[in-house]
Structures are given as C-alpha cells and as structure tokens.
Amino acid sequence: MESSYIIERDVSWLYFNHRVLQEAMDKSVPLYERIKFLAIYSNNLDEFFQVRVAALKSLAALAKSERKEYTDDVKPKKALRQIRAIVSEQQELFGKVFREEIIPDLEAAQIFLVKCDEFTETQQTYAYDYFQEHLYQPSLLTTLPLDDATTVSYQIKNKALYFAVFFEEEGIAPAIVEIPTDQLARFVILPQKKNAHQITFLDDIVRCNMHLIFPKVTIRGIYSIKVSRDTDLHLEDEFEGDITEHIQRSLDIRNVGVPTRFLYDSQMPEADLTQLLQQLQLKPEDAIPGARYHNFNDFFQFPDPTNNPSFRDEPLPPLPHPTLEQADSIIHLLRQRDILLHFPYQSYEYVPKLIMEAASDPQVEHIRITLYRVASKSEVGQALLHALAQGKSVTVFVEAKARFDEASNLTWGKKLKMAGATVIYSFKFVKVHTKLLLLSRNEEGILRYYTYIGTGNFNEKTAKLYTDHALMTASKSIGKEVKQIFDLLERKILIPKTKDILVSPFTTRSKFEKLIQREIKHAKTGKTAYLIAKMNSLEDADMIEHLVEASQAGVQITLIVRGICRLVPGIKNYTETLK
To answer: Of residues 134, 433, 469, 546, which has the active-site annotation?
Structure first.
C-alpha cells in the first residue's frame, strides 16, 4: 500500500531501532547505560536479519504469481534495497557514536579499550600467557581452510565471530578462525598502565597470537567476519505428528539456515572480499561493511573496573503492592476486591506466590495456565511443579513457537508433563499470546474461579524490564469466560462466547472497529471523541484505515506504541488529530 500516511513495516521497525540508537547518543544517559543501548541496538538488528530479512529474501526468490499467495502489498526486492540503505546509514552512525562519544568518555574515566597493536610489552606477555592457557587447544580454536567452500560455508555458525586470515604465499588458501566467545568472556582486563584501566577484546588476544596458529606461513591480513542466518523454524506445515519433535529438529539446524547477512571488516581489500564471497558461496548483496569488531550485543557484559555507580541508572527496585503485601492470603483478598498490578514498577513475586498458595490450598482443585516465554530458571515453573507435588490437577498450554524461546518452553513442557501435568502445545497457523492463570476452587460445593489476566509473559526476568499490567480477580463472569478460553485451548469447544473478554481471532478486530466507529459517531454529532491505545506494534493496514477515518472525523487519538508503527501522525487531511 502506497500513501502519505503509511510506511512499510520493515522500514518502520528500522526507525524503532534507530530510537534505541538515539538513547546511546543521549549524553544525559549514564555512560554504561549508553553502552547497553548500543548492545540492544546490535542485538535487535541481528534478530531482524535472522527473521525479517530472511522472510523477504524467501519472498524475493518466489515467482510473482506464487508471491501473491503470501502478500500483495510488499515488494521484497525494493524493501531489501531500502533496508540495506537505511542499515548502512545507521551502522555508520553507530560506529561514529562508539568511536567519537563512547570511547572518549570511557578514556576520560581512565578506562581504555586497547587494540593488540597498542599492547605494552607487559600486556603482550599477558596476552600470550592468556592465549596459551585459555585458547590454544583444539576444542576451542576451530580453523577452517577455505579449500572446500561447500563444506566450510555451512560450518560457519549463525552470529558466531570469525577471522578471515589471508597469507602472503601464493597457492595457500585463506583460513577461517572462530573466536570462541560462546565459551570465554568477550572482554579481557589487562595489566594496568600508569593506573589506567586497560581492557581488550578476546578478538585481539587471538589476533596478536595468530602466528602461533599458522607458524609456517606469513600472514598478510586478518579481518573479522560474521554470518547471520535465517532462524525461522518454518513450521507452517509441520503439524503432522509431534509438534515438539518438529521444533526440536528445527532448533538443531537453526545455526545453518540460509545466510541473510555477511558482515565484514570494511578494511578488507576488495579482492579479498570477492574471493571470500566466492569461496563461501555468498552473494555480493549479502555483504554489509562493518567495523573491526562485530557482535556488539556482548557489550551487555562490558566490565567496569572502576565500579562507579554514576555510570549506571540508579537502581529502582520494584515496589511492594500496598494491599497484597499486607494480605495473609491472596485468594481471600480477591474475594473482597480486584487487584491491578503494574510491572516493572511493582513486584512480580505475587504471581508465583499466588500459585504456591493455590498449591497448598485443599479447596483448589485445578490450576490452568498459558506459557508463552518461560524463563530458564522460572519461579512460576517451580510453583507449578510444587502444585503437582501436592497432588493438584494442572493443565498447561505451552506455545512452542515463541521465537528464540522455543527450547526453554519445550524444556518446561517436558518437566511439567513428567511431573504429571496435562501439557498442550501449539495450534496450526496460530500463536497463542494470551497470558492467563485460572484457579478452580471448591467452596462448599460451589466452584469459584480466581483469574489472572496479564499483558506480559509469566517470566520473572522480563517482568523487570517491560511495562505490563495484570488483573487478579474473582469475578464470576470473567472466570467463566477464561474457563471457555481454556476449553478452546484444550480443544473442547470450537468458538468461545464471551462478552467481557476479546478473543482473537474471533472478536478482537470487530470489537475494536465498533469502538472506533462509536467515537467517529460522537465526533460527527459534536460530542467529545477520544481514543487512547497502548500496543506493541501498529502494523495492520485495515486497522490503520479505521484510525485515519477517525482522525479525519475529528477524533482525538493518542497511541502508545513500543515498536513498529506504520501510521504516520500529523499528516494534513489524514492524521492531524493523531499523536
């Protein structure tokens, strides 16, 4: 769709990631928080290439007639060109921020990031000893000669760091050397120089000892490279048989998916790059120039040898809920009133605490829960295991297709099933995003429901990072409707009949459209017309058209959007009342 007020999904996502980069540019943000935002930007971009760029490349490879089965309004080749241009511009800005702002600010704090050619004699000795003790063993340092391109191409793992090493001698093929950052810390603290803190990359420890790996040849050049691969599990038609087996097989081969980006040190000579692309069977359009170092997401662990508290945001521990904190029993409290929780501002501990209370309550007969992204060390998971150990009936719906959390979800699904839970996995063509917990309690022969409805995952780690809300209630009507949703997930009914709760894909769109039309009617009849909505993304073209219609009618619209937002505000005659 082409219009003045709507932009392509992927371009919008890149604008979102640019806002992350802006946080790194903001000098009012503490230094190590700015470094963290560079890491977030880098990690986001990696996932973007692994998923979205991979999808666009797959679309581009299809004939136009086949492509229409998937989408009408996306031109993949044009989108890929746009992405490449925007990413190149952002990468240049990223490098400038790091070199011209972050590095000088670190040096002003007497923290120096040292390259191998800047090592003092003492540091060279330290780097040699570190290499000999920690790196110089076959299980860690993998070297791949580029004389068998077909094999080597698929031995290069997704997102892993490598050096491409070129030699002076004619007839000697270049080699690929893996930097084992999956087994060793990316940063190494060196002996101090004149009371200044000196830190180097693991890459530089390997680089300055490369002659020990190739003692019989002369090294001409060493350049960092990285391959991002298609990590989508492509499960659309993989629902015959055991879904968990299909996902496990796909996880096992995720590291060798089709390449979507080849990131290389821009100092690499053109002839060497051409040779490398040919031998790795990569296309020139896959190649994106980068800096000397890749995988900036490792900067999440960048050490602070000064332990300076001003380098980080002031800790903001979650606040206790004023009512829940005083309650002897959450269940008894919910009989009296509803509770609304706000994360990360309030503590998440009440969620596993509610499950633990249910586990010990003789009147609770059944616990039902949906799991979308489960922490590897999950208090919620442990509480469910405790409930099973207490003899409770537990039903768990596990969304096995939660991207990049499939392995953790499958692990918890297996644990809970082995402990006696009824575990149900994904639907075909649908992801179950809902976050529900339902307790069924027998109270003097009457079954009463206690319900938790949240916008955030049952995940203690992300509950400290993302803004989410959760309702705890003993409402009869809500409890019965949530029970219907679990009946749907358990394949007991085909369509839920709910009034209070919107259920996708059955009622959410139609209800939203009715609510928007109601405000349009108010605006046209001179009444106050206002709409505020909070969401992760605004992507759906039809819903965007409804919002444009509302703005044209004079409805005042405020949208709080975390990521993708395809709708452009402030466009005359279209979105003037929207912010």
So the answer is: 433
In-domain check, residue 115 = no
Residue range 271-298, pLDDT digits in tens: 999 999 988 888 888 888 888 898 999 9
User: Which CATH number characterizes residue 34's domain?
Assistant: 1.20.58.310
Residue pLDDT, tens place only, 4-44: 899 989 999 999 999 999 999 999 999 999 999 999 999 99
Neighbours of 320 (CB within 10 A): 13
Measured on CA atoms in the order 319, 323, 328, 329, is the torsion positive or negative?
negative
Do 476 and 543 lie in one domain? The reply is no
What phi, psi does 392 have (nearest 5°)? -75, 150
Q: Is 488:469 a contact under the CB 8 Å cutoff?
A: no
Strand partners, 446: 443
Residue 156 has pLDDT above 50, yes or no: yes
Are 373 and 462 within 8 A, CB to CB?
A: yes
- For residues 173 and 264, state if they share a domain: yes
User: Confidence band (pLDDT; 50, 70, 90) for 168?
Assistant: very high
Active site (annotated) includes residue 433 = yes
Range of the domain at 518: 508-561
Task: Check if the beta carbon of residue 425 is closer than 8 Å to that of residue 395.
Answer: no
Within this chain, do residues 105 and 130 fall inside the same structural domain, yes or no?
Answer: no
The sign of the CA dihedral 362, 365, 369, 374 is positive
Residue 250 has pLDDT above 70, yes or no: no
Number of domain units in the chain:
4
- Identify whether residues 143 and 259 lie together within a single domain: yes
159 bridge partner residues: none
Q: What is the dihedral of CA 283, 288, 294, 295, to 10 degrees?
A: -80
Nearest-angstrom CA–CA distance, 272 and 284:
13
Same-domain pairing of 249 and 277: yes
For residues 336 and 379, state if they share a domain: yes
DSSP output for 529-573: -EEEEEES-B--HHHHHHHHHHHHHT-EEEEEESS-B-BPTT-TT
